[in-house]
Amino acid sequence: MIVTANENYINVIMNLSAEDPFACRIISQYNSYDSSLAFVDYWTIIDDKTDECTGAISRCGTSFILFLTDKTNLEEVSSFMRVAGASSAICSGDFNLNLYGSKSVSGVILKKSEPFQNVDESINFDVPDIKEVYNLIVSCADENFVPPPFDDFYVDVNHKLRHNATRMYGVYDGTKLVAMAMTVAESSNGAVLGAVSCHPDYRKHGYGSTVVKYISNRLVAENKTVYLHRAKNANQSFYNNLGFEQCGIWCEYYFER
Fold it and tell me: Which domain of life is it from (predicted)?
């Protein structure tokens, strides 16, 4: 059965899996957006026979994150998602959900738990403001990533910054932001990187790889495993050359309403 989360939600998730990018994303959202808010919800998935927790679900607006395990009743989750009013749902691609009428995209999950060596300290790193970050992301948009509207992006990132659920670092050429990386979720032992961007005019100079190394080393120093979701066939050599290891696959379902 799927039940509304209680005050032990984070502990329950951590007991299920100390290291999982989807658990990290749900915990980060829970720490950022209180369950009393109308646009978020949190659930635990409970085995009907043993009362054992077997997974977790979160909702923000109409976007869902699913943390599934080998013991999760996938048919129950599939039924729940079909009536939940979701526009999208992301989860591990190791689990096949029966979501009629949905389309899906997938890719690989990469991780890094050891620090990078030889980060170029001569590069000018700084914390960019949100508008700078958004403008850079827009300049790098492609078929694998379509930026959200600015107002939605600003409100979400600004809120997460205040709750220590995201951080951003950038590389500058003078006063111009030319490359950046940020976390889209953080928990006590994990972080998910996203929106890694380098301006088209500044590529092939090592700026993108250097900012990824910089933010990753700061996270690893806090004993956090760094995860990222790479789109299928996108940036494969970039992350392989950096030494990220594949640890799974992700799948995102979309529902046309």
Answer: Bacteria
From residue 212, how far is each of 110, 195, 227 by CA, in Å?
13, 11, 11
Place of tokens 């979400």: 156
Q: 256 by DSSP, 3-state: which?
A: coil
| pLDDT exceeds 90 at position 1 | yes
pTM of the entire structure? 0.93
Nearest-10 Cα torsion for 196, 182, 188, 41: -90
Distance CA 215, CA 33 (A): 24
Side-chain-side CA neighbours of 70 within 13 Å: the count stands at 1
20-42, pLDDT tens digit by residue?
A: 999 999 999 999 999 999 999 99
* Distance set, CA 243 to CA 79, 85, 239 (Å): 39, 39, 6
Which residue segments constitute the domains of the chain, with CATH numbers given? 2-100 (no CATH), 110-248 (3.40.630.30)
